[in-house]
């Protein structure tokens, strides 16, 4: 298990609920070399006096060295936590998803705001449409399979596509990957209506085009 020790005086932001831990706040990282190199591995975060502060996803290649999963010492980071977080995020966005027309894009999961650091999920076309996921941090990327499984189980939507921002993933030291994670890929263009304006959207890239 990785152990991140925070510099004395730098733990204040964590105690206030800040979910990001920058390289400049870390005194040392203890653990096996292979654990330190594993992007997104879970680490215990402690103060300079060895007091438990959090469990976080560690990434040695990012300036944001760790992103907090939980501040609760009794809450392990496991499949059950991922399932709970996805279910809770979808419950918060359920009203918007229910009201959305088939030609609207709805945000279902919003990263740290939903305690799922680096994970963005949008839906188009309801249950029969597509879930578009972006894994913008190593922790979310490491839990990709259970995240997708939970999304499918909770929404009933069988088509899941991974969209990638090359610059963001490069900054995290992650490979640029995109493609279908389950079911079918979305078409090159879909019609979208937003605030009364119609346009064509490439769900795979997020690019918008003049409606034809």
Automatic annotation (TrEMBL):
SUPFAM superfamilies: PUA domain-like (SSF88697). Residues 2-91 form the PUA domain. GO terms for biological process: methylation; rRNA processing. It holds the Pfam family PUA_3. PROSITE patterns: PUA (PS50890). The keyword Ribonucleoprotein does not apply. GO terms for molecular function: methyltransferase activity; RNA binding. The keyword Flavoprotein does not apply. It is found in: Cytoplasm. InterPro entries: PUA, PUA-like_sf, PUA_sf, RlmI-like_PUA. Keywords: Cytoplasm, Methyltransferase, RNA-binding, rRNA processing, S-adenosyl-L-methionine, Transferase. PANTHER family: RIBOSOMAL RNA LARGE SUBUNIT METHYLTRANSFERASE (PTHR42873), S-ADENOSYLMETHIONINE-DEPENDENT METHYLTRANSFERASE DOMAIN-CONTAINING PROTEIN (PTHR42873:SF1). This is SAM-dependent methyltransferase. It comes from Massilia atriviolacea. The lineage of its organism: Bacteria, Pseudomonadati, Pseudomonadota, Betaproteobacteria, Burkholderiales.
